[in-house]
Specification:
By secondary structure, this protein is mainly alpha-helical. It has two domains: 51 residues; 220 residues, MetI-like fold. 73% of the residues lie in helices and 0% in strands. It has 13 helices and no strands. α7 crosses α9. The protein is globular. The termini are far apart.
Length: 307
C-alpha cells in the first residue's frame, strides 16, 4: 500500500515564505499593527489634552499655556485663587459631588426595580415603559433639559429651579443606564436559580432578595459607577435647572470662565473631579473583579444555604 505524497507537498508549499499560510499570517499581522496604530492615535488624541490640563494645574504662574515652574499654589496656598481658599470653587466642587451622590442613590435602586419589573411583566404597559426607557438614549439631552425647564417653570410643581430640580432631571436622564445594564445581567442569570429558591421554600420576594439581588450586584455596581461619573460630567441639564451660584457645578464653572482670563485654579478644579471619578472607577473595578471571582462557585447548593 502506497501513500500519496501530495498532502505532504501541499503542507510544505504552504509553509514556504510565499505560501498560503504565510500570506494569511502576514495579513493578520498587518491588521493587528493597523489596529494598534489607530488605538494609539486615539488614546493620544484623548489623553494628551487631559494630561496638559493636569500639568498646568501645578503651574507656578498664572499662565495656562506657558510653563513657569512646579507649584501647588492653585490647590492650597494662593490667598485668593486657590481651590482651598476660593469659597466659590469649594461650593462648586461640593455641589457637584453632592449631586453625583444623590442622583446615584436615587437612580440605581429605581433602575434595578424597573429592570426587575420589565424582565417579569409582559404586556403593552411594560412594552411602553421599556420603549420610554430606551428612547432616552435617542432624545437629545438639550431637548430633555428644555422640557424639564418648562415643566418646573410653568407647571405647579412643588419645587423650583435649584438642587431638587437638578437631581430630578439627572435621575430622569440617567435612569436608562441601570435599567439596560441590569436587564442584560438578568438575561444571563436566567430563571433556574429563582425557581430553585422557590422550590426550597422561599417566597417570591425572598428569592429576589436572597438570590437574585446578590447575583445582580455586579451589574448594580457598574450602574452606580456609570451614573456617578455621568453626573459629574453633566452640563446641559444642570445648567438649565440651576437657580443661582450655589447650584453651579464644575462643568458650568469651567464653561463660564474658560473664555475669559481664568487662572490655573480652573485646571486644579477639573483635576480634582478627574481624580474623584478615577478613584471611584478603580475601586468599583476592583470590587467587581472580587465579586466575579466569588460568583464562579455559585450553584444550587449555595442557594440552598442562603434560603
Amino acid at each position: 500500500m502506497t501513500v500519496s505524497a501530495a498532502p505532504a507537498e501541499a503542507i510544505l508549499e504552504e509553509s514556504q515564505p510565499g505560501g498560503r499560510r504565510s500570506r494569511l499570517r502576514g495579513s493578520s499581522d498587518a491588521r493587528a499593527y493597523g489596529l494598534a496604530t489607530i488605538t494609539t492615535i486615539y488614546l493620544l488624541w484623548s489623553l494628551v489634552p487631559v494630561a496638559i490640563v493636569v500639568l498646568f494645574s501645578f503651574n507656578a504662574g498664572r499662565s495656562r499655556s506657558t510653563w513657569q515652574g512646579f507649584s501647588t499654589r492653585w490647590y492650597t496656598w494662593d490667598p485668593d485663587g486657590s481651590v482651598l481658599n476660593d469659597e466659590s470653587i469649594r461650593v462648586t466642587l461640593m455641589h457637584t459631588i453632592v449631586l453625583g451622590i444623590l442622583a446615584t442613590i436615587i437612580t440605581v435602586p429605581l433602575g434595578v426595580l424597573l429592570a426587575l419589573a420589565l424582565d417579569r411583566w409582559r404586556g403593552r404597559i411594560p412594552a411602553g415603559a421599556n420603549f420610554t426607557v430606551l428612547i432616552t438614549f435617542v432624545i437629545p439631552e438639550i431637548a430633555l433639559a428644555i422640557g424639564l425647564l418648562f415643566m418646573v417653570t410653568y407647571l405647579a410643581t412643588p419645587f423650583g429651579l435649584g438642587t431638587t430640580a437638578q437631581v430630578i432631571g439627572l435621575v430622569t436622564f440617567q435612569l436608562a443606564y441601570p435599567v439596560v445594564i441590569c436587564r442584560a445581567r438578568l438575561l444571563t442569570i436566567g430563571t433556574q436559580y429563582e425557581e430553585a429558591a422557590r422550590d426550597l421554600g422561599a417566597t417570591a420576594l425572598g428569592a429576589i432578595r436572597r438570590v437574585i439581588l446578590p447575583m445582580l450586584f455586579p451589574a448594580i455596581l457598574v450602574s452606580a459607577i456609570i451614573v456617578f461619573a455621568g453626573v459629574l460630567d453633566d452640563f446641559v441639564i444642570v445648567r438649565y435647572l440651576s437657580s443661582d451660584a450655589s447650584t453651579e457645578t464644575t462643568s458650568m464653572r469651567i464653561y463660564q470662565t474658560a473664555r475669559a482670563a481664568p487662572t490655573p485654579a480652573l485646571n486644579a478644579m477639573a483635576t480634582i473631579i478627574l481624580v474623584v471619578s478615577t478613584v471611584v472607577i478603580i475601586l468599583g473595578w476592583l470590587l467587581y473583579r472580587r465579586l466575579n471571582r466569588g460568583e464562579r462557585g455559585t450553584d444550587i447548593g449555595a442557594i440552598a444555604s442562603q434560603i
